[in-house]
Amino acid sequence: MQRRDFIKTSILGTGILMGSNIMNANPAKTKKYNLTFEYQINFASASDTKIWIPMPMTTSFQKPSNVKIQGNYDFYKTYTQSQTPIIYAQYSKKPKRILASVDILIVQDNSKEKSNHLENYLKPTRYIRTDGMIEQIAKELSLGNEQEKLVNIYKWIKKNIDYENAKDTSKIRTILSKNSTPILSGENISANTIFVSLCRACGIPAREAIGINIKTLTTLSKAQAYINDSGWNLYDPIASIKDSSFDGFGKWKDDFIFLNYERDMKIESSIVSLFDNAFATVDGDKLKYYENKNFTKNINIKTLI
């Protein structure tokens, strides 16, 4: 196999280098991990195979560095789309292999990021809804100021959604309340999708945060809502529903590596409902249309400090 090794300290200017606030952080409150994505696609007849891999974003609470990309691709590049760092590779050889590795420093950060353009975080999307049952529930929860509305929304979700319906699930489904009332339908939705939908229906900018569970290596989501005087605040309703002793109002459980905020990302002619893993095409068709035996993946997270 022809092998190409590249060591990067940034992904096209997306701020992957560590900032001074991280370098000066309290070591007792920092953790460092190595995240590795490895994929192999085996199609004897394929003449054109493409793969897109989401990489972790740089934020005030996590700093990726030391990116390494290895593979037998014909061409590769890194770029950003909607602030999401992406590795793209294209192949004609067989089998197709790629490995992407990145170190991630995570810091307990009490500062809240600010945004200037919030209108997109108020709009409904395919699966983040502000109509139907979401609209009905929001009317009951929209009394008071922003903070009071958020308390109402968070309490309603904890009281009315059980863990089976709340958890992240990679399929099309309908989330039901504890009394079997349909609340929201869609693909790759969770209690965080409901939280974000209710926030937007109540006039509060909100977004889902998509990442990888450090222990199970599966998709894990959390939520953020924007309060005008403080910026983006953290919320973790799924963790609170799973473990009643954990209060996720205003904080996230320390159990995941954050990737991006993407919903319905457009990649060529396809719409990806959740960009939580590699997306690939084989001669123009989505990889998921083929048997799993033709595609192998390995995700690994190693604790460094």
TrEMBL record:
<dbReference type="Pfam" id="PF01841">
    <property type="entry name" value="Transglut_core"/>
</dbReference>
<dbReference type="InterPro" id="IPR002931">
    <property type="entry name" value="Transglutaminase-like"/>
</dbReference>
<dbReference type="InterPro" id="IPR038765">
    <property type="entry name" value="Papain-like_cys_pep_sf"/>
</dbReference>
<protein>
    <submittedName>
        <fullName>Transglutaminase-like domain-containing protein</fullName>
    </submittedName>
</protein>
<feature type="domain" description="Transglutaminase-like">
    <location>
        <begin position="137"/>
        <end position="237"/>
    </location>
</feature>
